[in-house]
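Lab notebook, design round three. We kept the backbone fixed and only want residue identities now. Task for the bench partner: fill in a sequence for the structure below.
Input structure tokens:
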């Protein structure tokens, strides 16, 4: 006859086996898995090209982007010799090498042609310098500037010019309909900026404007601990130090508030403003900001009750504590594993900042540009079920430990 304590232990072991099966043997899939070897491939540093290498690695890890720009019928939309066409070529070479696990570093000629022939001259020209001057080449540039240029070319803005339709638009749908390319719809989001003029004993004057962007730039407040603090700060009403020109009179005070508009795009790119400027000059913000994964951006929209959950796909990290230089690396998640892409070096490594609590950095590297990808609805349900299993697992483990101790001591 089996003792009742033994029965309880057997039951607990059975419960644990179910949890372990779900966590170890059959873990839930976060995103569609690659059909070939999926670890990132290293990119040779061609001389201060780390900002380019990190940006390429982060973009290449976005499967929805590759599905849109790499098919032959889509490539004809981009001009030969443009950054978008060159980026597609680099993607094709990286993807082709994936079939051979032994090829771990892309030949130097590939990033060098992309960097020295297209990207660097464009960035230098944008800065107002002569791209033909060899002294201006091989300078350290900013990853966010490069990302802006690539997005402008991929979406067709750079070739066709842009039209400010936000002045004519009456609602979010008008703006969405005005940007037809699917590639832009992949990244574009709408922000409503609300300005309020409050006066003594008078009805507040409220004005609203819709603005379109592909990168969400967030300031880092002094009390920020996580990305959620930065998002909350971005969407909170803020008192302006200087009143709006239209806000005058006794007791007049100007306020501004921003709200992201639903629906949100499939990819959300977040830039943390690591550099601040004041009368003494510029400096890097060294606070350690924890990055949540997943993140519910719906909380910071015009429909906060409507969830919009995203998983972190890739991150560009900036090392260095000055404005004049530094080093860029990328973290990319593939097959539920994180990889550090440091130019030609690729190592399996989980970022320290992926936590909900304060983290201790080993050096001065800080997350700079975040690439979030929308979770499908079924994945949201899976996450809830997984969280429930964690509770069951921990409770069952605690009960098993207590019963084993009692059994060892002969307590019935």
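Proposed sequence:
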């Amino acid at each position: 006859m089996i003792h009742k304590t033994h029965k309880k232990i057997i039951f607990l072991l059975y419960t644990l086996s179910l949890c372990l099966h779900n966590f170890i043997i059959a873990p839930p899939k976060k995103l569609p898995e690659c059909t070939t070897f999926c670890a990132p491939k290293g990119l040779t540093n061609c001389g201060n090209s780390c900002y380019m290498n990190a940006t390429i690695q982060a973009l290449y890890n976005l499967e929805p982007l590759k599905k849109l720009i790499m098919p032959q019928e889509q490539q004809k939309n981009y001009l030969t010799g443009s950054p978008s066409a060159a980026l597609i070529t680099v993607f094709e070479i990286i993807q082709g090498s994936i079939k051979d696990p032994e090829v771990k570093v892309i030949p130097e000629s590939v990033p060098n042609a992309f960097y020295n022939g297209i990207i660097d001259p464009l960035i230098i020209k944008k800065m107002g310098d002569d791209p033909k001057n060899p002294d201006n080449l091989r300078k350290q540039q900013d990853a966010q500037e490069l990302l802006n240029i690539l997005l402008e070319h991929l979406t067709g803005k750079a070739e066709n010019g842009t039209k400010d339709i936000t002045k004519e638009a009456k609602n979010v749908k008008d703006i969405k309909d005005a940007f037809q390319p699917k590639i832009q719809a992949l990244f574009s989001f709408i922000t409503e900026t609300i300005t309020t003029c409050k006066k003594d004993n008078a009805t507040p004057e409220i004005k609203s404007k819709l603005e379109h962007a592909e990168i969400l730039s967030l300031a880092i407040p002094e009390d920020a601990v996580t990305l959620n603090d930065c998002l909350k700060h971005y969407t909170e009403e803020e008192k302006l130090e200087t009143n709006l020109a239209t806000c005058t009179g006794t007791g007049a005070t100007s306020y501004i508030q921003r709200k992201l508009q639903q629906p949100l795009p499939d990819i959300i790119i977040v830039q943390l403003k690591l550099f601040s400027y004041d009368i003494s000059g510029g400096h890097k913000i060294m606070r350690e900001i924890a990055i949540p994964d997943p993140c519910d951006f719906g909380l910071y929209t015009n429909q906060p009750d409507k969830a919009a959950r995203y998983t972190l796909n890739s991150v560009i990290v900036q090392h260095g504590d000055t404005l004049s230089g530094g080093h860029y690396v990328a973290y990319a998640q593939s097959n539920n594993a994180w990889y550090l892409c440091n130019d030609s070096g690729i190592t399996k490594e989980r970022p320290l900042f992926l936590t909900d609590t304060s983290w201790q950095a080993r050096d001065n590297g800080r997350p700079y540009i975040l690439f979030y990808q929308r979770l499908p609805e079924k994945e949201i349900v899976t996450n809830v079920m997984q969280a429930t299993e964690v509770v069951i697992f921990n409770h069952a483990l605690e009960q098993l430990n207590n019963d084993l101790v009692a059994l060892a001591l002969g307590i019935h």
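Keep this in mind before ordering anything: DSSP finds twelve helices and 16 strands in the chain.
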